[in-house]
Automatic annotation (TrEMBL):
Keywords (A to Z) from UniProt: ATP-binding, Coenzyme A biosynthesis, Kinase, Nucleotide-binding, Transferase
EC class: transferase
Domain GHMP kinase N-terminal: 97-147
Pathway the protein contributes to: Cofactor biosynthesis; coenzyme A biosynthesis
The family this protein is said to belong to: Belongs to the GHMP kinase family. PoK subfamily.
Cited function: Phosphorylates (R)-pantoate to form (R)-4-phosphopantoate in the CoA biosynthesis pathway.
Pfam families cross-referenced by the UniProt entry: GHMP_kinases_N
GO terms, molecular function: ATP binding; kinase activity
HAMAP family for this protein: Pantoate_kinase (MF_02223)
Organism: Candidatus Nitrosocosmicus oleophilus
Protein name listed in UniProt: Pantoate kinase
Species lineage: Archaea, Nitrososphaerota, Nitrososphaeria, Nitrososphaerales, Nitrososphaeraceae
GO BP term (any one): coenzyme A biosynthetic process
Entry-linked InterPro entries: GHMP_kinase_N_dom, GHMP_knse_ATP-bd_CS, PoK, Ribosomal_Su5_D2-typ_SF, Ribsml_uS5_D2-typ_fold_subgr
Catalytic activity annotation: (R)-pantoate + ATP = (R)-4-phosphopantoate + ADP + H(+)
Amino acid sequence: MVLVTQVPVAVAKAYSPGHITGFFSTPDPHISTTDPKFLGSMGAGFSINKGITSTVKVFSSNEKNYEIRLNGIPNFELKVSNFVVASYMQLIREPVYLSIEHESELPIGYGLGSSGSAALSLSYALNEALKTNLTKVQAAQIAHNGDIACRTGLGTVISEFTGGFELRLKVGGPGIGQVIKSELSTDWCVIVLCLEPIKTELWLDKSVTNENKHSLNLLGRKMVHDLYQNQNVGSFLEMSYQFAREYHLDEGKCQNPINLLQAEGIKASVALFGHTLFTLTERDKVRRIVKLLEQFKGQLLVCGVDNLGARLIRRND
Ligand SMILES: Nc1ncnc2c1ncn2[C@@H]1O[C@H](COP(=O)(O)OP(=O)(O)O)[C@@H](O)[C@H]1O
Ligand SMILES: CC(C)(COP(=O)(O)O)[C@@H](O)C(=O)O
């Protein structure tokens, strides 16, 4: 039997933005390693100001145990969160019962980085609530390791850790990967139309042949190089669309809405990995774009760019 006190001995809360990848590349590592800190992807994308808030309540208990709810509902398949909790349980000696709540503004599986966002916000909140005293980078590395181990993301955690419009120049998790961050002004708005989810895990492993993987990696790497020379949102959107076409994501559910926007001179692409259209646009064009997209069945999100990256929002007091 688990004995748990009624009043939490500690509470902490953290937030991580969601994230959209426009293109990426997974070149073979220079050294052969299985250490997830050195694995990940190069690429480009941006963090959005919709994300996941994780709250951790710690109770005294006679054994180590936990429960996780997602938007109030228990028993979701939350493997990345389980990985993060297991990592912290190994770091502490005393038995505790953890009550964990993820509040998600992100639909799951649509290429908005929900897995990374859950892992990162949870890792920050656990580090604070359990007083494990890891640095921000170390806590973010645990989240990155979880995303890599579960095959739910590669470069998502380091991007959400950094925030802004990011160019990932060198593969690796937080503290290892090299990222150039540009802050975008609040005049930039993000419009997202979520049409159908894609399991990142399946697409990373099975959607492309080895030969295709090689050419996608070359293309992704070339795009990183080209965007580095000419860092602007328009080029990013164009490259992202070209990249999505290589995955044939332009032919699925996103085909009609993208064609419609392009016919109106509006650049748009597909968020990796989801049947999810996205665009970045100046504020004065938002109403027009929303009007055009409203006719399609799906979840329409209008938000901004998060320039701050993941953060603790309630200290352990
Ligand atoms: N809020 C969440 N809390 C815990 N785990 C989550 C959460 N959101 C997603 N996950 C995990 O990540 C998986 C989806 O990841 P993925 O296919 O990469 O989608 P996304 O593109 O939204 O990141 C889910 O099956 C689940 O295991
Ligand atoms: C594209 C992806 C491999 C997955 O992203 P998501 O489905 O949003 O978790 C990302 O982690 C990246 O490396 O850029």
